[in-house]
From TrEMBL:
Pfam families: MFS_1. The lineage of its organism: Bacteria, Pseudomonadati, Pseudomonadota, Gammaproteobacteria, Lysobacterales. It comes from Stenotrophomonas nitritireducens. It comes from the Bacteria. The chain crosses the membrane at residues 12-34, 46-69, 173-192, 218-240, 252-270, 282-304, 310-332, 344-367, 373-394. This is Major facilitator transporter.
Length: 444
């Protein structure tokens, strides 16, 4: 897997991702503890609202940001966004009111909403070979898991020396180092997509490709499953550990790390597994596991009348991490397979935006429902959400999903260059099929 790090451009970007996510992981723990410090047992509702703000910003800004930034300015914009995130994180330790948390989270996540799609769309341009790209996706998944494993572990160690407010300084340092590494990276040269298209048109283009591609509609439904399990961990871990298990700040960090252990273990196995097993089978199996874990956790919670212990929580969090990695890691392969290179930034932005609609729904169920009606109702609602997503993915993503599809063009002139590039027999031909100007609908 690590042989892709021989590519210097990817190595620098991967290192930038790692250090930024270590900082983000510290902020995740610190934000949960800050919410508990300000709101006590209502911390789940505060976190749910803060994360809902994050999702709203992601949904609205991500598609436009990828469409607005021309290829020549991507490095400059990424550096500026890293520095903006560092400044916002550095301000968080000084908040004293819940509304201040919400404003700073909106500013911080606005920068992240613009940064992430641009960053993700660079990787398939740097690593053209699909096997290398698959390895890069798994490494990227491992980097994201630093936020839920190594960062909480580091946070637990730091909390023995400093208060949780000091963790926000680590976040700022991570973003600054990320900016330095992005600056040192050689970016690939990509031609801009038709200069006469405005940002709104390019943003809609990514959405249109996404929603008209069956495998991506399945991916969207699987994002709902991932959000259901992930939101339970990200929103309610602090409440479960502090209020139910009577743990402290370090125990919150270790519980989050359990989720990361499961996720990292699967992410390291996926490159070899995906060489032998289809993306669809892996992702649907992970979705089934997520539904099963949530349903079993609900049953145990009710059976014990809420008196759960560490022997219930830690294995459940590990299995949720396993399912989560199996759901989200292969997603980049599906996106890469479903668009031309020039359209990839817009497609990644569409995935970023649409997937976070799923998270917006799940965060509200995990936070608001949990705070108002209790943890069993929240877990039950999330289990139902995951089952709906699993059923929709099974139906939307056909089992037969070849890259090359036979199709025709009823209204295409006989002298069009497309016929010369892909000769037809009796008016039909076969080639790698993606939604574009000539192929506006998926063939049946």
């Amino acid at each position: 897997m690590i042989d892709v790090l021989k590519n210097s451009s990817f190595r620098n970007l991967f290192a930038a991702q790692v250090v930024a996510l270590v900082g983000t992981g510290l902020a995740t723990v610190a934000l949960a503890l800050l919410a508990y410090d300000l709101a006590g047992a209502e911390a789940g509702a505060v976190l749910g609202t803060a994360l809902a703000i994050k999702m709203i910003v992601y949904v609205t800004l991500a598609p436009v940001s990828a469409a607005v930034v021309p290829p020549a300015l991507r490095k400059t914009v990424l550096i500026a966004l890293d520095l903006a995130r560092a400044a916002a994180a550095l301000t968080l330790p000084f908040v004293t009111e819940i509304w201040q948390v919400y404003i700073l989270i909106a500013l911080l996540q606005s920068a992240s909403a613009c940064f992430t799609p641009l960053f993700q769309s660079l990787i398939p341009e740097i690593l053209k070979d699909e096997k290398d790209y698959t390895k890069a996706l798994s490494l990227s998944r491992l980097a994201y898991d630093l936020e839920s494993l190594l960062s909480p572990a580091l946070a637990a160690a730091l909390l023995t020396l400093i208060s949780f407010h000091g963790l926000f300084a680590g976040t700022s340092v991570g973003f600054v180092l990320s900016a330095v590494l992005v600056f040192s990276t050689v970016f690939p040269l990509i031609a801009a997509k038709r200069g006469d298209e405005g940002p709104y048109t390019r943003a809609i283009r990514g959405m249109r490709i996404y929603l008209r591609t069956p495998r991506l509609r399945g991916l969207l439904a699987l994002n709902l499953v991932a959000a259901a399990g992930g939101s339970l961990v990200f929103v309610n871990t602090v409440v479960v550990v502090r209020s139910v298990l009577q743990g402290g700040e370090r125990e919150v960090a270790w519980a989050l790390a359990a989720f990361g252990i499961g996720s990292m273990a699967i992410a390291m196995l996926l490159p070899r597994l995906l060489d032998k097993v289809s993306d669809r089978r892996v992702m649907l199996s992970a979705a089934g596991l997520m539904c099963a874990v949530l349903a079993c956790l609900l049953g145990i919670w009710i059976g014990l009348n809420g008196a759960v212990n560490w022997l219930v929580v830690i294995p459940s969090w590990v299995l949720l991490g396993v399912a989560y990695a199996g759901l989200v890691t292969p997603g980049g392969r599906l996106l890469r397979r479903s668009a031309d290179s020039a359209d990839l930034p817009f497609l990644f932005a569409a995935q970023f935006s649409l997937s976070h609609i799923c998270w917006l729904i799940a965060y509200q169920l995990a936070g608001m429902v949990g705070a108002k009606w209790g943890m069993p109702i929240a877990i039950g609602a999330l289990a139902c959400l995951a089952i709906v997503g699993f059923a929709a993915a099974w139906r939307s993503w056909p089992k037969a999903d070849p890259e090359e599809i036979e199709h025709g063009h009823d209204n295409l002139p006989s002298d069009h260059p497309h016929w010369a590039e892909h000769p037809a027999v009796t008016g039909r031909h076969s080639h790698r099929f993606v939604i574009d100007d000539l192929h506006t609908r998926w063939p049946h």
